[in-house]
Amino acid sequence: MSAVPADADEAALRAAIRERVRAAGTSFYWAMRLLPLERREAMFAVYAFCREIDDIADGDVPAAAKLEALGQWREEVAAIFAGRPGRPLARVLAEVAVRHRLRRDDFLALIDGMEMDATGPIRAPSLATLDLYCDRVASAVGRLSVRIFGDDSPDADRVAHALGRALQLTNILRDLGEDAAMGRLYLPREMLERHGIADVDPARVLAHRALPDVCAEVADLADRRFEEAAIAMARCSRQAMRPAAIMAAVYRATLQRLRRRGWERLSEPVALPRPVKIWLALRHGLL
């Protein structure tokens, strides 16, 4: 959001946030389009925050500089909840946080997750560390999101807990090659060792003959999380959970395509065609 002048009026700020989300071309954009305007723009602001700190973690600067920039956002979160936001994006987030009773700890968890990447690269984490990472970078987003969707019940938090993990595990399987190019390997150590892979070098792991077995096990774990999310979602407000249902459908379809492609041709991209995304959005958004 640095391109937005600090003295921009609210309309200009929201327009800039909206354009950033639209330009990203993500499944998120289509799912959020079904929300009423105010909730949609609240979600766009949260997405812009996620992109802001993710760009810091993935930037080409030393780890110390990344941690300093993330620390500045940590201070900004404190300012948001103290009612004195400074940055343009923070001014929008402050209003969103009050209106939807968002929790400071969820914003801070996201920054914690970005710090894990910034100080990395993460390579073959333990299952416990991977679960913590997924909670911070994905389930925390879910906990913010379900409140904006209109459901702050314990079951809505259970949806966030399980669905966030399912989405992140799917991302990990989809982005194995891209992550390896950055020196990252999110496949859990216990699964690698169970299938005879003692190495943690990303390139060598991806070339190992047992990689398909590890990926299949991670995919099974993602499927279990999708199932847990569906069970919790059935106990929530159906109207409020429509965007979550769309995201679940899009990502589960992506996981199925990854399984069909297999794990020997990682350079072959897997993505849902835009018409399929739109169809899933309509199916889960209108039924």
Outline type: globular
Distance between the termini: 36 Å
Q: What's the level 1 CATH class of the largest domain?
A: Mainly Alpha
- Could you give a short account of the major beta sheet? none
Unreliable sequence segments: 1-5
Mean pLDDT over the residues = 89
Order of secondary-structure elements: HHHHHHHHHHHHHH
Helix content: over 70%
Which fold name is given in CATH as the topology of the largest domain? Farnesyl Diphosphate Synthase
CATH homology superfamily of the largest domain: Farnesyl Diphosphate Synthase
Strand share of the residues? Answer: under 5%
Task: Give a count of the beta strands, DSSP E runs of length 2 or more.
Answer: 0
Strand-helix topology:
Elements: H1 10-24, H2 27-32, H3 37-57, H4 63-81, H5 88-100, H6 104-118, H7 127-149, H8 154-174, H9 176-181, H10 189-194, H11 202-207, H12 211-233, H13 242-261, H14 274-286
Characterise the protein shown here.
With 287 residues, the chain is an all-alpha fold. The chain has two domains: 102 residues, Farnesyl Diphosphate Synthase (Orthogonal Bundle); 167 residues, Orthogonal Bundle (Farnesyl Diphosphate Synthase). Helices cover 72% and strands 0% of the residues. It contains 14 helices and no strands. Helix 1 packs across helix 3. The longest helix has 23 residues. The chain is globular, with a radius of gyration of 19 Å. The N terminus is likely disordered.
